[in-house]
Amino acid sequence: MPELPEVEIIRRHLDAELRERTIRKARIRRRDLVLNLPTARALARKLEGRRICRVDRRGKNLLFRLDGEAVLQTQLRMTGRFALGHQRPDSSLYRHIVAVFELDDGRNLYYDDVRRLGGFRWLEPQEWAALDRSLGPEPLAPSFTARRLETTLEGTRAPIKNALLDQKRIAGIGNIYASEALFRARIHPERAGGSLEAREIAALHRSIRAVLRDALQAAGTTFRDFRAVNGSSGSYQHKLRVYGREGEPCRSCSQPVERSVQAGRSTFLCASCQK
Ligand SMILES: [Zn+2]
Fold first, then answer.
1. Do residues 162 and 115 share a domain?
2. Distance, CA 93 to ligand 1 centroid (Å)?
3. What's the domain count of the chain?
């Protein structure tokens, strides 16, 4: 599932291309893509004639800010991807186009989703405000300080890895970057969140930001299905230190990287480096 860096890469691309464009026509082929309106046609009707003011991101959510303060929220989940152009994109990469948005400059925005796990949600301004409030701080924002991380972990019995995945505590971190940040901070993922000492919290805070920044610089991690707009892909998978490296030597101490399962998700760690 795309995490903060991958969604941010997509956002930058879409924002640069779609600002001030108007959606002339929306063709949404699957009812199950529309998460909070009764029909696909109902969403299409709301979108047609709207101008895209900008494309934002909050956590792992992509947000099309429309005129009239409405927001089209998208979660790409595992398999959602966009393409933009005058013609249908390369069918070897985009075989399951399930929505097409015709723009006033003659181009189309295509949405492809083989498993249709992603989808669209129409948010009125107050609904968007409620979603925004329900999410934790953006880890790359200046307001996300070590102190803020400490506060959110205070008294937490849940394992630190699970706490990092909790979008209400911090927005945008998923399985890949939680594992990577904990490795860099040399913290064992099963430690209780509230048991971290001040210096460990400071190290974790630095690691979270460093991992996300490095991943952004590499245009994200390409795992299975992730593609940015028009099929381009990131390269951070070559820099991962633990995630997906079960049995391979730790880059720091050469012991084999281990995989465990926490809350139903794979966690990768080096048991000799992470305490
Ligand atoms: Zn190690």
1. no
2. 37
3. 2
